[in-house]
């Protein structure tokens, strides 16, 4: 049962009650009064049930929702009643509160677990635009709401490959440089689709490539820039090569500071194989060669690459 369904259940019970005439929800500033009559706004009809939300908390698989349920009526004066009848109204409003709790607890087969112990009743008499009297009950509704990793609204990728690099390598984008990072230690590859810096597949679906790699920059020569953030080369059998940029990335340097400065590059790349048939080859991770000269960098040991396909 969702939070909205709980609120709507209170609204339904109010409409079904033979004495309660109106329902409200929100902050105290949202309370309506009978004198709020205008061309675009209707005033309230009494008796009036107003639901004031409190703090909610989770205890394991249970959500506990707290409310102040306020039931009020006009404090109408009656002849010979020196208390302006508000004590009678407070007593009636307490009974209405009990009616609502009983309806919620006993009538509905899917009823949330209303905590019937520890409910506090507080009578009041207030002067708003209307002079009101009534009763406030502080209640807690416990709803079993277990967290379920099987239904959370995120993409889920089945692990296909997990690889590690164990050697310090020099990488660069210029002609003659090793442009692709290499991962030489295979941790998981049941389909035998990994080859040092390449992954091959013909299975349609969305693929995710997650890289976590420490690097250092080598001293640029005069006129050299820092290598650009890596891309992935996607080669499709019988077609041209395309470059895939990271969908999310952090840690790649943009300026040279020191050869001792270690940068942790973490990035996620995505690619789609639309149909079965063609062979797709992805080359990881690849330092492209833009216009101008770039320095080299070091791929430090213990970097990881994980590949998954959406389930």
Q: What would the keywords be for this entry?
A:
seven-stranded mixed sheet; mainly beta; 311 residues; Jelly Rolls; 2 domains; elongated; eight-stranded antiparallel sheet; 40% strand; Alpha-Beta Plaits
Protein described:
The chain is mostly beta strands and 311 residues long. It has 2 domains: 142 residues, Alpha-Beta Plaits (2-Layer Sandwich); 154 residues, Jelly Rolls (Sandwich), CATH 2.60.120. 12% of the residues lie in helices and 40% in strands. The chain has 2 helices and 20 strands. Strands 8, 9, 10, 13, 16, 17, 19 and 20 form an 8-stranded antiparallel sheet that branches. β6 and β7 form a beta hairpin. The longest helix is centred in the N-terminal third of the chain and has 22 residues. It is elongated. 24% of the residues are buried.
| Rounded mean pLDDT score | 87
Strand content: 35-45%
CATH architecture of the largest domain: Sandwich
CATH topology of the largest domain: Jelly Rolls
Shape: elongated
Report the helical percentage. Answer: 10-25%
Sheet with the most strands, sense and barrel status: 8 strands, antiparallel
Structural class by SSE content: mainly beta
Q: Nearest-angstrom radius of gyration?
A: 34 Å
Count of separate DSSP helical elements:
2
**Strand and helix order:** HEEEEHEEEEEEEEEEEEEEEE
Total tally of structural domains? 2
The number of E-state strands comes to 20
> What is the C-level CATH assignment of the largest domain?
Mainly Beta
Unreliable stretches (pLDDT < 50, length at least 5) are none
């Amino acid at each position: 049962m969702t939070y909205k369904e709980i609120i709507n259940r209170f609204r339904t019970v109010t409409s079904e009650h033979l004495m309660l005439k109106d329902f409200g929800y929100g902050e105290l500033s949202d309370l309506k009064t009978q004198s709020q009559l205008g061309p675009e706004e209707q005033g309230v009809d009494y008796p009036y049930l107003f639901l004031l939300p409190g703090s909610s908390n989770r205890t394991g698989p249970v959500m506990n929702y707290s409310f102040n349920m306020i039931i009020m009526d006009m404090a109408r004066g009656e002849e010979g009643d020196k208390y302006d009848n508000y004590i009678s109204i407070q007593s009636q409003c307490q009974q209405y509160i009990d009616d609502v709790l009983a309806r919620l607890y006993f009538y509905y087969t899917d009823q949330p677990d209303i905590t019937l112990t520890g409910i506090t009743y507080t009578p009041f008499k207030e002067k708003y635009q209307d002079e009101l009297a009534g009763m406030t009950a502080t209640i807690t509704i416990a709803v079993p709401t277990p967290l379920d990793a099987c239904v959370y609204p995120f993409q889920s990728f089945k692990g296909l490959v997990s690889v590690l690099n164990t050697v310090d390598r020099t990488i660069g984008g210029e002609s003659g440089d090793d442009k692709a990072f290499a991962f030489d230690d295979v941790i998981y590859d049941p389909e035998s689709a990994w080859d040092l810096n390449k992954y091959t597949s013909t299975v349609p679906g969305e693929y995710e490539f997650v890289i976590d790699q420490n690097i250092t920059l080598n001293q640029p020569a005069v006129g050299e820039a820092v290598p650009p953030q890596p891309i992935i080369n996607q080669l499709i059998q019988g077609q041209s090569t395309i470059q895939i940029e990271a969908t999310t990335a952090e840690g790649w340097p943009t300026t040279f500071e020191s050869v001792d400065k270690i940068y942790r590059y973490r990035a996620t790349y995505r690619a789609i194989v639309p149909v079965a048939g063609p062979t797709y080859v992805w080359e990881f991770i690849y330092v492209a060669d833009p216009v101008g000269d770039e320095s080299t960098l070091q791929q430090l040991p213990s970097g990881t690459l994980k590949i998954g396909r959406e389930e």
